[in-house]
Every structure is written in structure tokens, then in C-alpha cells.
Amino acid sequence: MVEAHCIDILMPDIQRVGGPREFLRIGEYAQAAGMPVSGHTFHETTLPLLACLPNACCLEVMPWSSLFYGASVQIENGDAIVSQKPGWGVSLDRAILRRHGLTDADV
Q1: What is the rounded CA–CA span in Å between residue 74 and residue 40?
Q2: Which strand (E) or helix (H) includes residue 63?
Q3: What Å distances lie between residue 33 and 23, 50, 95, CA to CA?
Q4: What are the backbone angles phi and psi of residue 91, rounded to the nearest 5°?
């Protein structure tokens, strides 16, 4: 798709491409081809990765899993704010997980 230029923006899904390193590798490949990159779903984990890519153009926000986080991605004036906290910059809300029948072993 990249080589054929049949898409305008490459949107890898971190859950399906093999994790963070593969996500970044795909973003670097898109950059070499002069193509912008975004993330597909899971904005809590793709935002810090997109911040590493000079060809990142936008953040797809699908808040399906946001309720499981103590604090989600902050949006100000249409811009996603990259957290300065360690790791992904967000943490799971253990009380919400327990209410949904999940334990630490599940996550």
C-alpha cells in the first residue's frame, strides 16, 4: 500500500503489528516513503510512539478502553498532550478493573 501510494495516511494498529517496536519500524518505513502515519485505535499507547515519529500527523481517538485508565490522554485545543509520566504515561484503574471482574493476572 505504501509503495503503490494507494493510501493517504498509514495507520498501523499496535495490537496487530507486533507491538511498539514494529509500530515504530512501520512509522519509519512510511517516513522514508514520504507518507504520514497515525495510529489505529488504542490511543493511550500509540500517542507516545507517535511522538517519536517526525511524520506523525494525527491521533485517532477511540475511547473504548479509556474507562480502564485512571487518567487518559489529555486533549487541549484539539491537540493530544504527550504525558511526561514514565512508561505509557497512563495507568490502569485497578478499582474499575475489579468491578469488571478482572484481576492483575488478566492485564
Answers
A1: 18
A2: none
A3: 16, 17, 44
A4: -130, 155
Let me know if residue 21 belongs to a domain: yes
* Element containing residue 48 per DSSP (H, E): helix 43-50
Is there a domain that residue 37 lies in?
yes
| Section 42-47 average pLDDT | 91
Give this prediction's pTM: 0.84
Does residue 23 sit within a domain? yes
DSSP 8-state class, residue 92: B
Cell 468491578, residue located: 99
Residue 92 lies in a domain: yes
Contact assessment for residue 58 and residue 38, using Cβ atoms and an 8 Å cutoff = yes
Q: Which domain holds residue 62?
A: 14-106
